[in-house]
Amino acid sequence: MDIRHLQYFLEVARQQSFTKAAEVLYITQPTISKTVKSLEDELGVTLLDRYGKQVQLTDAGHVFFRQALEIEKSFRSLSSELDDLMNLKKGHLRIGLPPMVGSSFFPMIIGEFHKAYPQVSIQLFEDGAKKVEADVISGALDIGVAVLPTVDEVLDHFVFVHEKLNLLVHPSHPLAGKESVALQELEQDAFVLFREDFALHDRIIVACQQAGFQPRVVYESSQWDLLSAMVAANLGVALLPETICREVDHMRVRIIPVGEPVIPWQLGMIWRKDRYLSFAAREWIAFTQSKLGEQVK
């Protein structure tokens, strides 16, 4: 058994498919199937229950999966520390970004970082902030961007955005001419929201409940421009961060500050504070903190 066997097994377990795991690892399916079977023979247990094109962990597989994850994390940490000691100044970063954040803040920063550290490769994963946070905690991502505050104390962060949510309404909406609105005034409106894996989904619903009503959600999406288009089609109202509102077509919708209560939108770069940070991760944190210009937690 070597680390490669563990990595093949872990990817099959994550994907629940030999075919998908082979695609992710850029190897052939027979190779990965043979390796996992060899691992099972060596251990004398069945790790994966194979049925059709899908696989699931057996009881023994669940036990082995947990231990294999820890071994893989330790191996990755050892490799990173040795690279740092040799001062190679290279590495690989897995960074999670919510879709509405990436295009607004990071293209230029990623370009400048690549110029400064050409031997550090970056792999970006676009997911809702809740999924990004969970993946940083699990170790699937090295670093992520999340809506603060985070729910887990194992995370450290620095803040780079302090904003609030604004209301988007159709120009014909009764509130379209107001300079500000109270959340309670939206009790009879239909809402278009981000999906449940976005932190703003829960935050908006909780804010409405605290204002005394349960919002009537008619549509959910992962794309802010689609939500804006739904408002422009007079299908509902939306609450979006100030940064996003600057990108919205102001001819098709009206943007109104929400004054009572103000719903904050605070973004931060997050990472595990109890885990070794590679050279690449440390440099990314320092570099983005200097560029985005906010204080450390």
TrEMBL record:
The organism's place on the tree of life at top rank: Bacteria
Pfam family, one: LysR_substrate
Keywords carried by this UniProt record: DNA-binding, Transcription, Transcription regulation
Alphabetized InterPro entries for the sequence: HTH-type_LysR_regulators, LysR_HTH_N, LysR_subst-bd, WH-like_DNA-bd_sf, WH_DNA-bd_sf
Domain HTH lysR-type intervals: 1-58
Entry-linked Gene3D superfamilies: 3.40.190.290, Winged helix-like DNA-binding domain superfamily/Winged helix DNA-binding domain
Similarity comment: family membership: Belongs to the LysR transcriptional regulatory family.
Protein name in the entry: HTH-type transcriptional regulator YwbI
Organism of provenance: Paenibacillus silvae
